[in-house]
Specification:
single chain; 5-stranded antiparallel β-sheet
């Protein structure tokens, strides 16, 4: 995973995979999801990031080793996708 912030255009990019982007959809205003040819999410762009994220230039992450603390997995709902 790679996270970049471009202050010149105020865009925060989260790249989840190096797969080629086949399609991009604006999930919500200013939130763009990138999909590969199989429909998997491979990236996300947050436009006007400085207004949407507390600190787009800083990042903190945690690796969860205790399964009781992990995010629950469930199928994602599809919005506006065939």
């Amino acid at each position: 995973m790679k996270v970049t912030y471009d202050p010149a255009v105020d865009v925060l990019r989260i790249i989840l995979s190096n797969a080629t982007v086949a399609e991009s959809d604006e999930n919500k205003p200013g939130i763009i999801l990138d999909y590969d040819k199989d429909g998997n999410v491979v990236g996300m762009e947050i436009l006007d990031a400085s207004r949407r994220v507390a600190n787009p230039q800083g990042m903190e992450y945690t690796i969860v080793s205790d399964p009781t603390l992990a995010v629950r997995e469930k199928p994602a709902r599809k919005y506006g996708r065939d």
